[in-house]
Write a structure and sequence with these properties.
The complex is a heterodimer. Chain A is mostly helical. Chain A is built from three helices and no strands. Chain A is 41% helix and 0% strand. Chain A is rod-shaped. The N and C termini of chain A lie far apart (92 Å). Chain B is an alpha+beta fold. Chain B has one domain. Chain B has a four-stranded antiparallel sheet. Chain B is globular, with a radius of gyration of 18 Å. Classes of the chains: A mainly alpha, B alpha+beta. At the A-B interface, helix 1 of A face strand 2, helix 3, helix 4, strand 3 and helix 5 of B.
Chain lengths: 75, 167
């Protein structure tokens, strides 16, 4: 019985060590997804002027804060 | 004489397995250029699919470092050497065939690991989205040889069953 046990463990063990098959545990994303082209997003600071006077020519948080405190935006 | 003939058969089988494996990998890599194509659909359940395995079976023990790579080469070479010594004493043809298949296949994978750093795998059986591990000719030889070794252990001339009868 011990010999059978040894054979059933050692032979498959050695076979596993010697062979080299690749398992595919995750799908190949490049065969599934199409990558969209890389584009530069539009510049959101360049909105058309007008209507929104609260943020008129004050775009960054610093400018908005100065405007709220001093009423003007330094150029 | 019978002793030498059986072990000679084993060595010839090992050489045949190694050559068949090398030729199949050469054809897949250099002629078909599977690494570039990635995948060739053959049948609804069979693909040629390129995979580089840096570990052992089922991508276990994946060796990312050079130390791991050469450690695997050394360990598997040691096993092959052991099998070679065993083969010298073998008198049974089935046993010699089995050991030869395992040795030849192992050498085929060792060659890849030593020369390329990975083992080339390309046969993929699948059903729907389920796929069996991608393997190569050397893996098939090793698996067949191991199955024959187990068969021989149970039913061969020097098997557990027969040695039990003698006692």
């Amino acid at each position: 019985m011990r010999k059978i046990f040894l054979l059933m463990v050692i032979i498959p063990g050695v076979a596993l060590l010697l062979s080299a098959c690749s398992s595919m545990d995750s799908p190949d994303e490049f065969s599934v997804l199409k990558n969209p082209p890389l584009v530069i997003p539009p510049d959101y600071h360049l909105r058309p002027p007008g209507a929104d006077s609260a943020v008129e020519d004050a775009f960054t948080p610093q400018q908005i804060a100065r405007r709220a405190l001093f009423g003007t935006v330094p150029k | 004489m019978a002793l030498r003939r059986a072990s000679h058969l084993g060595y010839i089988i090992a050489l045949c397995a190694l050559v068949t494996d090398r030729v199949s990998k050469w054809w897949i890599i250099d002629i078909l250029d599977l690494p570039e194509r990635g995948r060739v659909v053959l049948l609804p359940f069979l693909n040629l699919r390129w995979a580089e395995n840096r570990g052992v079976s089922f991508s276990l023990l994946t060796a990312d470092s050079e130390v791991g790579r050469w450690g695997l080469v050394a360990a598997t070479l040691l096993i092959v050497a052991g099998l070679g010594f065993w083969l010298r004493t073998v008198q049974d043809r089935l046993l010699a065939l089995a050991i030869g298949l395992v040795m030849g296949g192992a050498l085929g994978n060792i060659y890849d690991r030593a020369v390329f750093g990975y083992v080339a795998d390309f046969v993929q059986f699948y059903i729907g989205s389920w796929s069996f591990a991608i393997f190569n000719v050397a893996d098939s030889c090793i698996t067949l040889g191991a199955a024959l070794l187990i068969w021989d252990a149970f039913f061969g001339s020097t098997s557990v069953k027969n040695s039990g009868k003698v006692k």
